[in-house]
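Reading group handout, session on sequence-to-structure problems. Before we discuss, look at one worked example. The prompt was deliberately terse, the way you'd type it at a terminal:

> structure Anti-sigma factor

The input record follows.
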Amino acid sequence: MSCGEPHETDCSEVLDHLYEFLDSEMPDVDRDKFQQHFKECSPCLEKYGLEQAVKKLVKRCCGHDDVPVDLRAKVMGRLELIRSGQTVPEHDVSATSPGTPQES
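And the output record:
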């Protein structure tokens, strides 16, 4: 998605890192660039608003459930792989129980 207008920070970069912005998981200098982009680009601002609303809805509807420790560990492990640039397998064989048929 791009609005077709030139920006200091490209629309694709903003959308690729939108959840890092929403979750406050990026350096302040990048947050400032994104905030400036949202002031200039209404399509990206609209997408930001939509994703922010979805995140709030999920938190409101599912925020009371405790996350199983093993699931949290798997998710955190995958995030670390992604951040380090390693390939993440689409289907993790260790995630299936013994005797559970695997998808083909």
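Points for discussion. First: The chain is about 60% helix and 0% strand. Second: The chain has one domain: 11-88.
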